From TrEMBL:
InterPro entries in the cross-refs: Acyl_CoA_acyltransferase (IPR016181), Leu/Phe-tRNA_Trfase (IPR004616), Leu/Phe-tRNA_Trfase_C (IPR042203), Leu/Phe-tRNA_Trfase_N (IPR042221)
Any one Gene Ontology BP term: protein catabolic process
Homology family: Belongs to the L/F-transferase family.
Protein known as: Leucyl/phenylalanyl-tRNA--protein transferase
Species for this entry: Vibrio cincinnatiensis DSM 19608
Length: 244
């Protein structure tokens, strides 16, 4: 059976079913449209996200399997735990989202990043609307690491992270998992597995299972205070873990 990609209409925010995504390349579903906040949010609520390279049209994806973190069971490597005990970076939420987005793009070679000017502007607009959120890691007064993504109910769709110093992005993820879990967050989507995510403990879900979780979690809410700008406590190791 031949599957043809759908070209998105400029005046419509509907998407084809993720089940119709290509197997090769994995998850490619549609092309075209634009990066209006309403279209991007519609995509995320259906398990779809934009990703495209230089010279390409806007491409929309829903891969299988899907890489995810369970924030309730996330455990950093022992080396990260030891590092955090000695260094104690300061961690904040939604205090420098635009800078996090810009640095996520800046740390990668221009020819390798999907975070072009239009993508950065789109996510910064979503941040202004309260849908895109960031975690920032500070060393003294310098922003040295962080991550950002989109809130979809009790699911957080991680988009990108950066690190300028040792373990800073890992500690951002660790602190966010604990914070998100405390506020009824249930799942963190990180799209496609890679060696870095695997080293952090990400697992994979078939698209069908991910979509089933999404349909439930997008209808539930995290605590009202979850994404208010704030300083986060340093991530901690449960005493029962230290005894293991």
């Amino acid at each position: 059976m031949t599957i043809y990609l759908t070209e998105l209409a400029a005046d419509s925010f509907t998407f084809p079913s993720p089940d119709s995504a290509l197997s090769h390349p994995n998850g490619l579903l549609a092309y075209g449209g634009d990066l209006q906040p309403r279209r991007i949010l519609s995509a995320y609520h259906k398990g779809i996200f934009p990703w495209y390279g230089p010279g390409e049209p806007i491409l929309w994806w829903s891969p299988s399997p899907r890489a995810v973190f369970n924030p309730k069971t996330f455990k950093p490597a022992k080396s990260v735990k030891k590092f955090q005990k000695k260094h104690h970076y300061h961690i904040s939420l939604n205090r420098a989202t635009s800078r996090v987005i810009e640095l996520c793009a800046a740390v990668r070679p221009a020819e390798e990043t999907w975070l072009n000017h239009e993508m950065r502007n789109a996510y910064q607009c979503l941040a202004e609307q309260g849908a895109c959120h960031s975690v920032e890691v500070w060393e003294h007064e310098k922003l040295v690491g962080g991550l950002y993504g989109i809130e979809v109910g009790q699911l957080f769709c991680g988009e990108s992270m950066f690190s300028l110093t040792t373990n800073s992005s890992k500690i951002a993820l660790w602190a966010f998992c604990q914070h998100f879990s405390r506020h009824q967050g249930q799942l963190i989507d990180c799209q496609v597995m890679n060696p870095h995510l695997q080293s952090l403990g990400a697992t994979e879900l078939p698209r069908s299972q991910f979509m089933q979780s999404l349909l439930t979690l997008r209808e539930e809410s995290v605590s009202e205070s979850c994404f208010q700008p704030q300083w986060l406590p340093c991530p901690f190791v449960d005493s029962s873990e230290e005894r293991v």
